[in-house]
Structures are given as structure tokens and as C-alpha cells.
Amino acid sequence: MRGQSHDMVQLLTPDGERLEHDEFAFTGTTDDLVGFLRDMILARRFDAEATALQRHGELGLWTPLLGQEAAQVGSARAVREGDVVFPSYREHAVAMVLGVPLTNLLGLFRGSNGGDWEKLETFKNYQIVIGCQTLHATGYAMGLQFDGAVGNDDDADNSAVIVYHGDGAASQGDVNEAYVFAASYNAPVVFFCQNNQWAISEPIALQSRIPLFQRAQGFGFPGVQVDGNDVLAVKAVTDWAMQRARAGEGPSFIEAFTYRMGAHTTSDDPTKYRRAAEDEAWKGRDPVARLTTYLRNEGAIDDAWLAAIDDEGKALGADARASIPQLEDTTMDKLFATVYAEPTVALEAQRREYAEYAASFEENA
Amino acid sequence: MSETLTMAKALNRGLRRALQADPKVLLAGEDIGKLGGVFRITEGLQAEFGENRVIDSPLAESGIIGTAVGLCMRGYRPVVEIQFDGFVFPGFSQIVTQVAKLHMRTAGQNPMPMVIRIPFGGGIGAVEHHSESPEAYFAHTPGLKVVSCSNANDAYWMIQQAIQSDDPVVFLEPKRRYHVKDTVNFSARPAPMHQANIARYGTDATLLCYGPMVKTCLDAAAVAGEEGTSLEVVDLRTLSPIDWVTITSSVRRTKRAIVVHEAPLTLGLGSEVAARLAQDLFYVMEAPVLRVAGYDMPYPPARVEEEYLPSVDRILDAVDRSLAY
Ligand SMILES: Cc1ncc(C[n+]2csc(CCOP(=O)(O)OP(=O)(O)O)c2C)c(N)n1
């Protein structure tokens, strides 16, 4: 594959074979891996459900994650209490692993609200303006450092930030500025780039002439390319990067080499810009299939387990569907009340004007 | 407890007080540490408070503002310095797409108690991009508050009020007035930041202005006074939200209004003020609201800036036109 380095870290082959690596090892148990597989299957299921909800007109848009389950689950499982996540707009599996209610995601894409997550302290808002969040993450990481939450002898006192961005985002000024700030201040931030090969219709070749992970060196911190469809490798590499950050050793960059198997969003038509052969080639690297093969061969899961997860997925889908009518739309009053922390007379006047206007309909009804 | 200080020194004192008062206050910007900023507004502060409180930033405006967003999320109150007005634009996206919106998007969970200090306006003979008046871009953006000081006392107090505010404040410093001295009263309770100030009382017409134009308007009022015309000068101080109470009560009395600003005429602050006065005081005013502003051109080369900037004469011409109705 173009852009795939000989140094790409892989611990589980597409055929489900375990590999050894000199620097990175998966330290979890087989039970952990069963848990990861469950996360990935349920994330895939939820994603399919949300896509269908968009088709039914229940969501304005959806950003499918199909194909990126391992990159997201593996990295999210390296996040621990005290760490903070700055997502882009496709990190549904990360949200799921961190316990953000999935209805929060649906509410955002439905347009019920602007994204006031329930766990905003640990999982920040989705970001639509490409790359902006990399600076927020870096600033937050600087704050962690000022607060003395990095490099303490007692590791439990240490925290780090992980920020997600895409391959297209790597072209943005903000992202490059974030790399500079992170390096200059040695901020405890991990840049987790999901190189899914495409920025809407633009291939990675248009964004970078060299593999993205090699850029990190130019900014003065380590960059690692990992097989983004290998959850073991992603977990191992992210553990390493987060631990470095927490220990005060500064930023690092992870290029998760993966593939967006579906459309960019529900408005997109990938057949216009990429060949079916490419999709086929990547299907052979499916993150869910390879872990399933491995765990089956290990005897850790069987048909009954898979059937049970399938049932769980169906229930999750039903819950997602059932949650739609329960989603409460924000109100003009709430919006008026939250434009500013300290209210203004001028806006209060507009709120009253709106309220009177709205009330006039009720009287007529 | 008062002292005569330049506006630059008054800002420095205000920042110092804010740093002392709250350990969560941080300053960040290009050259603000050892150098004390290109206008020396932060002089001596890094030596006193250390490199983690007064932070020299890499040369990247979006980076400065974007990292300040993250610092706000972490509970800090960053005060960032943009070196010159014309260089805020690389950071403009962060200001309008992030700083202004995060409070509402998060239903109030992520306040942005950030101050963005911008030395603004012309009249110092600078090269291009060093003399601009971008206030309307910010005042047009819901979620931001925008203020401008015009004298040392306000500079001292308003910068502290802006830092204490839980909302993001774009703080415009009229750079050509940095070295104007004034009495700073350290003990008297200041007016609220979002309140206009009647800088001079008069009866025949009201000049509405802010920042660098307040002194020009006061000069114009002094000349007019010698000629027997009594002009009231209202220093808006706050551009978003605008203090309509003070403005309309003044114009209700004088029945004539002239808005004066350096920024280009079309869709400038004056447009909003004129529209609002026409709406609220249509039957009271004796003349339409007039505007004296910069022309609708990019800021001109320094050797002709005097032609471009509102001057005492242009203001007095407008006063004559208003009185002729
Ligand atoms: C500043 C900005 N420009 C353009 C867009 C429109 N847009 C949305 S997603 C996208 C592609 C992003 O690609 P990439 O960073 O690779 O992320 P991916 O969607 O593949 O995860 C574009 C151009 C945007 N949201 N923000």
C-alpha cells in the first residue's frame, strides 16, 4: 500500500496471526481482547444503525466509522481516568468506550443540540472545523503541565491528552501550529491521526508526499505508524504514547494506517472518486474479521458468543431507534440563555421579542 | 489613591493586578515575555510572575488563540496579545468558530473566559497591516464581547474587568493613545465595563465615538465650544453589547447625533448606531444620524493616513451639516 512503511507496527496479521515486535507488545489478556472485539462489533452495529436513521430522515447527517473500529477502540482503551480526549467528528467508538451516552451523538447529528455531552470533562465536543481541536488539546495539555499533573513520581497523579484528527487535517495550519506548540512546550499530548486514506474525495497523496508519521520528526517529537486495523498494535502504541506524555516526556504522533470502508458522510458517494478494487483490497484487512479469526482459533470465542453479541447489537440498534423520539430539542430560551455566561440587556430584549412572537401563535391556536 | 500614568503603563498595572489577584490568569503572546511586548505593555511581568504565567508564544496567531481555548477548558483565564490589528486574521477562525461559540454549543458547560488584546487603529505612521480597525468583524459575532478603552483610567480598570468576565472579550487598545497620560484612580469604584461614558456634556449635538476617536472628538468639541456650539461627547467604551441607554438618553437631549470611527464607513459600528437611533428616536431627532468614518478602502499608506482618518475638521463639518437641518 502506498504510504505504508516497512516500520509499521503490526501485532496481528489480517489472517489473525500474532506477531512479535521489538519495541511494542500487547500486554493485555485474551479476555481483554474479547472485550475489544465486543466494543468493535457493537460500534459497527451502532454506526450502521445511525446511518439507517439518517436514511430515514431522523438524523441530518451521519459520519460513518466503518473500517476504523480498531483504531478507535484500541486507542480509546489506552485512555484512563484523568486523561482527556479531543475528538474530531467520527470518533463514535471512542465515545462508546468512554461511556458517553450514544444518544448524545445522535442528538448532535439530529440537530437537537450543539453537542453538550454528558461527559464533557473527559470527552470534548465533536469538532467540525477541520483541525481546530488539535490546538485546544495542546492548550489543555499545557494546562495539565502548569497544574503539575505530569511527570509526578506517583504515576496515578499523571494525566495526558489525546486528540484525533484525519489525514486531510494534517494539511491544516492549525494542526501544524499545534505540533509546534506541543513541541515547544513539551506538552503531554498525543496526536492520533487516523489516516483513512481519504479526505472526502482527496487521496492521501494530495495531502502528503511522505508517510505522515515521518512528519513528526520535523516537529521534534516521535512519530509511529501503526496498523490501524490491528487493535492490539493500536493499543500497544497508544499506551506507549500516553505513558510518555503522562511521564513528562512530551508529545508524540501516531499514524493509524487504516481505511474508511464506507462513505465520508451520508451525503457522499465514494464510487465517484475511488476504485472498487481498492475497497476490495482493504476488506481483506478488516479489523473485526481478523480479531474474530484470532480469538476463534484461540478458543476464546465461539459461534454462541458471536450470536450473543449479535443479539446485543440488535438490542443496541433497537435502543438507538427508540431513543430518537426521546431526544429533546434544545429551546430558543436555552440558546438565548447560553450565548453568554453574563447576560446582556440587548440579547434579553431579543429573547423577550422572540417569546412574545412565539406566544402570539399559541393564543391563535 | 491616584497617579498620572500613560495608557500603556496603566494597562501594565492592570495586568499586574490581575496576575496577582488570580493564579488562573495567564498572559500569552509573541514577544510578551523578555521584551515586554512590542509596545511594552507586559514589561516586567514575566520577570515577576515567571515563564508559566507570562508565556512567550511561537509565532502563530491561530496557535495562540486555539491553545488559549484549551487553557480555558482547563480552568485558566488566558489573556492573549495579538501584536498588531492586521495580524489577528490568522487567528480569526479560532475566534469566530470556537471562542465565540463554545459556551452555547456546550449549553454553558465550557465558558471561555479569554481576553484577546489587540492594539488597533491608525495614526502612528506605520507600515501596512499595522493600523487597522477590525472591530466590526468581532462586534458582528454573537458570543464575543468587544470593548475599547480611550484613557488611562479606563485602561487600568477595564482590562481587569475583562479578565474577570466569564465571557470572551476582544479588548481593543488604541495604540496611538498609548502614550497619552491621564489620572488613574486606583481606589474609586469603576463603572461597569459595558457602560458608555459621557466624556463631555453638551446640548447641541452628540458625538458618539470610542477608542482613538474619543480624544479627536473631545478636541473637536473644544473647538466647537469656542465657536459657541455645545457638543456632548459619548465614549461608547463597549461595542458589543452597546450601551443603548446612555446613547439614547444623550441623543434624546441633544436631538442630533454624529458617529465617529476610524473603521471604514460601510457596515461599520456607525451603521448599527444610526439604524438603532433612527428606530428609537425617529420622532425626537432634528437631523438624520451622520457618520464620520474611514473611507471604504484598505488602510492607506502612512503618508496619506491623515487624509483618511476622521479629523477635527471633518467632524466639525458634520456637526455643521447636522445643525443645518
Ligand atoms: C476548515 C474546514 N474545511 C473544510 C471542511 C469540509 N470537510 C469536512 S470533512 C473534510 C475532509 C476531512 O478529511 P480528513 O481530515 O482526512 O478526515 P476524515 O473525514 O477522513 O476522517 C472536509 C474537507 C471542514 N469541515 N472544515
TrEMBL record, chain B:
Query: Which domain of life, per UniProt?
Result: Bacteria
Question: How far does the signal peptide extend, from start to end residue?
Answer: none
The alphabetized UniProt keywords are: Oxidoreductase, Thiamine pyrophosphate
Read off the Pfam families from this record: Transket_pyr, Transketolase_C
One term of GO molecular function: oxidoreductase activity
Checking InterPro entries in the record gives: THDP-binding, Transketo_C/PFOR_II, Transketolase-like_Pyr-bd, Transketolase_C
Q: Which cofactor does it need?
A: thiamine diphosphate
Q: What is this protein called?
A: Alpha-ketoacid dehydrogenase subunit beta
